[in-house]
Design brief:
Layout lengths: L9 H13 L5 H16 L3 H12 L9 H16 L6
Helix pairs in contact: 1-2
Length: 89
């Protein structure tokens, strides 16, 4: 495991410590790790995961023609999923 050191202003450090305690984290380090993981997870899969997913999709059957109409329906579905609490349309 790598070590990362950061310097925080005293007021920021106090707020981070309070948030960690409120969140039930055993340490500030655990809290910050959770924040970083959540941020990175929001970005989507890592490149290697994405490549594997794309390869699996290539073998999953016939393709879809990406027309302007399809693109609009796709965008609308994604917006609806984002509004849904459980992430499904």
């Amino acid at each position: 495991m790598a070590v990362l050191q950061i310097t925080l202003a005293d007021d920021l450090k106090s707020r981070v410590e309070a948030r960690a305690a409120e969140g039930g984290y055993a340490s500030v380090e655990q809290y910050l790790q959770a924040l970083l993981r959540a941020d990175l997870d929001a970005l989507g899969p890592e490149d290697s995961d994405l490549e594997q997913l794309l390869l699996e999709r290539l073998d999953s059957g016939p393709g879809i023609e990406f027309t302007p109409d399809f693109a609009e329906r796709f965008r609308r579905e994604i917006r609806e999923r984002r509004k849904s609490p459980d992430g499904t349309a």
